[in-house]
Amino acid sequence: MLEVNLQKRLTQFQLDIAFTTGQELTALFGPSGSGKSLTLRAIAGTVQPDQGRILLHGTVLYDSTRAQNLTPQQRGIGYVPQHYALFPHLTAAANIGF
What we know:
Blueprint: E1 2-10, E2 13-21, H1 36-44, E3 51-56, E4 59-63, E5 68-69, H2 72-75, H3 92-97
């Protein structure tokens, strides 16, 4: 089970999202700029929310009230961005392999 309740403020955007999902396939969808990628990055641990809580299978990944924030390596979650972000000279497969 994944439980997400987080807030993140950027210069011109405020993300405020809460959802719980079980074992089923879950999709985030919405218009460009609505916070889908920001939400996934927060779950993966590559961006820190301003406040909130993220639990995965009972493990606290992030909790602002307890000052708990597991590193991306400790979370064991894969995240592949929709555009290349590591090495533009490598193919998508080579970036994933890296």
